[in-house]
């Protein structure tokens, strides 16, 4: 199990935007850990993508799938928000 604030503390980079749920943000505020992370070195990024290619993992297909899932989730959430706003 990951800590409740993982998706904030684990992704805390300068000039980044975090869209975490309010419960996650509340947990982050309570921990007091506000240390900005350094970017991952380019050599590590290159090594990661080389490994993906070596293992024949189609990263472009993964990107496409994640984008499709994300857009679908956004559309559903947006529709729910609009529905609630229309109730007045």
Q: What does the model show?
A:
The protein is mainly α and 88 residues long. The chain folds into two domains: 39 residues, no CATH class; 48 residues. The protein is built from four helices and no strands.
Summarize the model shown:
The protein is mainly alpha-helical. The chain has 4 helices and no strands.
In whole angstroms, the N-to-C terminal distance is: 39 Å
Computed CA radius of gyration, to the nearest angstrom? 18 Å
The low-confidence runs, each spanning 5 or more residues with pLDDT under 50, are none
Beta percentage is under 5%
Q: Which tags fit this structure?
A:
single chain, 88 residues, mainly alpha, 4 helices, 64% helix, flat
Question: Secondary-structure map with pairings?
Answer:
Layout: H1 6-9, H2 22-31, H3 42-54, H4 59-87
């Amino acid at each position: 199990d990951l800590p409740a604030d993982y998706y904030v503390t684990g992704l805390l980079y300068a000039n980044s935007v975090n869209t975490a749920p309010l419960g996650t943000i509340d947990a982050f505020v309570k921990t007091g850990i506000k240390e900005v992370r350094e970017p991952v070195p380019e050599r590590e990024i290159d090594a990661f993508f080389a490994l993906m290619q070596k293992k024949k993992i189609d990263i472009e297909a993964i990107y496409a799938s994640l984008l499709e899932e994300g857009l679908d989730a956004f559309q559903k959430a947006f529709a729910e928000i609009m529905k609630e706003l229309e109730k007045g």
